[in-house]
Write a structure and sequence with these properties.
By secondary structure, the protein is of the alpha+beta class. It has three helices and three strands. It has one domain. It has a three-stranded antiparallel beta sheet. The longest helix has 38 residues.
Length: 121
């Protein structure tokens, strides 16, 4: 009896998943939700970047600073009227892992700089 009920439930689930348009409609809904979420995140990011640029210009501070040891500090956002920077401290790790091979002038010829890029994959 248990086996029959399990088999019946499995057949019902497969039939529901494979009915014409069922899975496609669900995927279309999910894709649309993802597109909406991506558009909202993009708008929020662009607005934040505009606020950061405006703040940096008014305060006379750079958006990005490179240090002699190869470290970088980049202004990310403004919180409670104060700038928040992200700073790298991994120059030694980059050297150890041969990251210099992918940078401009590196042996792999890739010329990666770490600048943001939008990729369509």
């Amino acid at each position: 009896m248990k086996r029959s009920l399990l088999l019946l439930a499995l057949v019902a689930l497969l039939a529901a998943a494979l009915r014409p348009g069922g899975a496609v409609a669900q995927n279309n809904e999910r894709q649309q939700r993802l597109r909406t979420m991506a558009a909202e995140a993009d708008r929020a990011w662009r607005a934040q970047r505009a606020r950061v640029r405006s703040y940096a210009e008014a305060a006379g501070i750079p958006l990005r600073t490179e240090f002699e040891d190869g470290g970088v500090a980049a202004l990310q956002r403004i919180e409670n009227g104060h700038p928040v920077f992200y700073t790298t401290y991994n120059r030694g790790g980059a050297i150890t892992s041969s990251v210099d091979a992918v940078r401009p002038g590196g042996s792999l010829g890739l010329a990666l700089t770490g600048e943001p890029r939008r990729l369509g994959i």
